[in-house]
Write a structure and sequence with these properties.
Structural class: alpha+beta
Shape: elongated
Number of strands: 25
Radius of gyration: 40 Å
Strand order of the largest sheet: 5-14-18-16-15-19
Oligomer: single chain
Length: about 525
């Protein structure tokens, strides 16, 4: 049984027009993928247009690589501004821009006279505080003995205790100030805070700098340095494509300086906050690179290609060879067919979804399976026989469980082949709502259960206009998978070598708008 019966021409071809479609080119080169088919019949009540040119494309096995591309700028992962905690004149500089240094390497020295004077004063204050505490301790001991002999009053003794406490506090302050002064002595020697490369040098010998800790402006920046072993590219990705990306995906980076080679990296993270540029919403995406070879430099313009998915060998057709189910009528008009001559059975995608699931599992396996081939009767030869699938539909519906299911569970069972489309309909009728007897477009929930409304790229129903060697157009349901904009993967519904009619996107959109306009006019005749 052919899978094309579900989206079918009403009562076959129009009467009196059986031989209407004929090939204009009697012979084709083997490598030509498209041909031209013309309708040589005049328009009549069937709605077939005169002189309609139809381009064809053959379904072929080809590799597919799905990527997202964007441009960005290279920058170091860790970038540090080196400043001095001490103010004064630069006496010595030991490095220049481009030098590679290790952590702790001396970069520059500042005039130490101011901090040295502060250190000497702190040392003198400590000596005074130690002498004062010694005298206060002795005085306190003498007054305690005099108080016991009742030579002095209690009030006089309390004054001595207060002086001793003040001397202790002065000693603590002096000790702390000396420790800080000793640290400031080390601040005049500026050392590298990490292993890395000096990117920028902002000071010269003899320049007076300001302290980073004592100045409200943040002090003078002496150097800018970074570790260039790890680099990253910050790129802006359109919100339409950012949903396909995730942390950990492999990325290939190219730069203008090395056009003959590529650099490997991976997405580190996707920033949560969007940026709007020229009314386009973009998300910053960070790609991390290993740069231990030292070839990449900060500021280089980089092109990033992120691998989303790929197929070694899979059946594919041009993207404009398939349309959505709601676009069938408009596409038929583009091809010069009568849009009222076609009726869509949404349950037809059930067996196809099962075949597509099996095909997707094979493609995701370690070994690549042989591409699907056309059998002698033109039917699909991989997976279970479709007649047996449909024959078991009624029994599956009878055996459908009575307990309510979540829609995602039903979708998973359909894709795995555990239940048929008849069972799914029975479950939706039991659940009510759109897709059952609760209202809504017939079959809409069945299509949703198969993945049509989930955005799942692995299982998407579509429709193709297949043309046989006699020039007959057969409107056929398909299941499509990956898409790289130019080509779309066919998981079920079409075999290798079959020709599909190409529908121009601009013509299709124009027909859809025209149909909408006609519907609106019928709804509002005045």
């Amino acid at each position: 049984m052919r899978l094309t019966n579900a989206v079918r021409s009403a009562q076959g071809p129009p009467r009196g027009r059986t031989e209407c479609w004929r090939w204009r080119a009697p012979a084709l080169l083997p490598l030509v993928a498209t041909a031209t088919l013309q309708a040589a019949c005049a328009r009549d009540e069937t709605g077939v247009a005169d002189g309609v040119t139809v381009q064809l494309a053959a379904a072929e096995v080809r590799p597919m690589r799905i990527t997202a591309e964007a441009d960005g700028e290279l920058e170091p992962v860790l970038r540090v501004e080196v400043k001095s905690k001490a103010s004064g004149e630069i006496l010595e500089l030991f490095v220049d821009s481009g030098d590679e240094v290790e952590e702790g390497t001396i970069l520059a020295k500042v005039d130490p006279r101011d901090v040295q004077n502060g250190h000497d004063q702190a040392r003198a204050d400590l000596d005074v505080a130690e002498a004062r505490i010694k005298n206060a301790r002795a005085q306190l001991e003498r007054n305690r003995q005099l108080l016991e002999r009742e030579v002095i009053t209690t009030q006089a003794f309390e004054v001595t205790e207060l002086e001793y406490a003040n001397a202790q506090a002065a000693l603590v302050r002096a000790t702390t100030n000396l420790e800080l002064a000793q640290l400031r002595l080390t601040d005049v020697t500026i050392r590298a805070p990490l292993d890395g490369t000096i990117l920028e040098k902002h000071v010269e010998y003899g320049q007076v700098i300001q302290s980073a800790t004592q100045n409200v402006s943040g002090g003078t920046t002496l150097f800018v340095m970074a570790n260039l072993d790890d680099m990253r590219v910050r790129m802006l990705v359109d919100e339409v494509d950012v949903g396909k990306l995730a942390a950990g995906l492999e990325a290939t980076v190219t730069v203008e300086a090395f056009r003959d080679r590529t650099f490997s990296g991976e997405i580190e993270k996707i920033e949560p906050q969007a940026l709007v540029q020229q009314n386009v919403t973009m998300f910053p995406v960070i790609v991390r690179l290993d740069n231990r070879a030292g070839l990449l430099k900060p500021g280089m313009n980089a092109g990033v290609e992120v691998l989303i998915d790929e197929r070694g060998e899979t059946l594919a057709v041009p993207s404009n060879a398939v349309v959505q189910a709601q676009e069938v009528a408009a596409a038929a008009e583009v091809l010069g067919l009568d849009p009222e001559a076609f009726a869509i059975d949404y349950g037809a995608w059930g067996p196809l979804m099962q075949d597509a699931a099996r095909r997707a599992r094979e493609l995701a396996g370690d070994g690549e399976p042989d591409p699907p081939t056309k059998g002698e009767d033109g039917g699909q030869r991989e997976g279970a026989d479709n007649d047996s699938t449909e024959a078991g539909g009624a029994q599956d519906a009878a055996d459908a469980p009575s307990a309510p299911f979540d829609r995602s569970e039903i979708r998973a069972k359909i894709q795995s082949g555990e239940i048929s489309m008849d069972s799914a309909r029975a479950l939706f009728r039991a659940m009510g709502g759109p897709g059952g007897r609760g209202g809504g477009r017939p079959g809409s929930q069945v299509v949703a259960a198969t993945g049509a409304s989930t955005g799942d790229p692995a299982y998407r129903p579509a429709v193709g206009f297949v043309v046989d060697s006699a020039g007959t157009i057969d409107v056929r349901p398909l299941v499509i998978g990956l898409s790289d904009w130019d080509y779309v993967e066919i998981l079920a519904g079409v075999q290798v070598g079959e020709d599909l009619a190409l529908v121009g996107p601009a013509q299709l959109q124009a027909r859809q708008q025209e149909r909408i306009r006609r519907i609106q006019q019928r709804m509002r005749p005045f």
